[in-house]
Amino acid sequence: MPVDDDVRPARRRGIDHASLPTPSAPPYAGAASRNTGSQRALRDFNQQRIREVLAGSGPATQAELARRTGLSTATISNIVRRMAAASLVTTEPTTSSGRKATLVSLNEDGSFAAGIDFGRRHIRIILATPSHTILAERFQDVPVGLGASEVIAEADRLLQRMLDETGRRREDLLGCGVGVPGPVDRRTGEIVYGAILPEWVGIHVLDRLRSTLRTPVHLDNDANLGALAEVTWGPHADAHDLAFVKVGSGIGMGLILRGELYYGNVGLTGELGHTTVVEQGQICRCGSRGCLETVASTSYMLDLLARTRRSDRPLTTADLVEAAAGGDPAARRVVADAGQALGRALASMANILNPERIIVGGPLAALGAVLLDPVRQGMHRHAIPAVTATTELAMASLGDRAEALGACTLAFQQVAVPA
């Protein structure tokens, strides 16, 4: 008996680098063929699919479950009814697109995961449950240039404090999703040259993380996790083709194509920051000239703004956001020029991939239209009209928490949910 509609992996499954060079097969890959002809096996198989979607993406309406699993709405309704009777899920009335709907959530069983976002100057950790309840969140600054071992050790100490404060045990962690600001080679699990954390290049970060954190760890690029967060924690669950652009000390892009994170050949996708936008421009840390990062990263913007200031302390991104949001002319000019350069690079990407949505995130997300308007101007100038007319451009809905939230989702997606 065929499975209802089609059999395909749960949407947006992450990459578990424990099984490099290729991701492991979906846990149910052979189940349908082994149990062909068994109504109960088919029902259990479909129930497993629903659990995986809820674990990876959080609460969803029955209509959303139907879209994400490929099952019919009648099948979803019947299975959800049985799961609710068995106290596996909780249902409650809600509205979706102005219509009455039923929201389905996995029942809390004490399980939780950690999402860790490493930046050039920070560590952010979030503890969350599969139903998208945030148990704890901490942010900590770290000195620029600190070695990988020292930063990971600091993250371990911060994680332990959070576990102690919430009364949770490390051995009960389902796992840790970890985001790093640089391309990750899926063949080796290493951060490659050109990352904004040069101290981490060439180190097998995944092994170092696992030995220090003493829990299952799943590693990915931070922009990929930002994209994953927007379609699981954010308002873009219905987007099948989406680009998430993180503008920070570096500029990275996470791509969701046909509902799945896209990794390319060896995982080195989305390096938008190393797109040449200025011929014979400044030398970039990657070794090329005139890369987007040399004219649109927060580091470049801060350098420009510092020339207009007299201060005894270095300017921070928070200073830039405050000044631009407050109408400071110099800060507005710096942001506008960077935004137009970013829009030009995005236009080239959109002309090739034609995504339905482009989401701009990172520490400048709070600026809203101050940044988004010049980005849109750059896109309109350099993309073909049909592309700009059909591509939605928006600021990130999750602020600078997106990468850590996406890391939590990655951890949930890598857990085999028991039937």
TrEMBL record:
Residues 1-16 have a biased composition (Basic and acidic residues). InterPro entries: ArsR-like_HTH, ATPase_NBD, HTH_MarR-typ, ROK, ROK_cs, WH-like_DNA-bd_sf, WH_DNA-bd_sf. Belongs to the ROK (NagC/XylR) family. It holds the Pfam family MarR_2. This is Transcriptional regulator. It comes from the Bacteria. Residues 53-99 form the HTH marR-type domain. Residues 1-39 are annotated as: Disordered. PROSITE patterns: ROK.
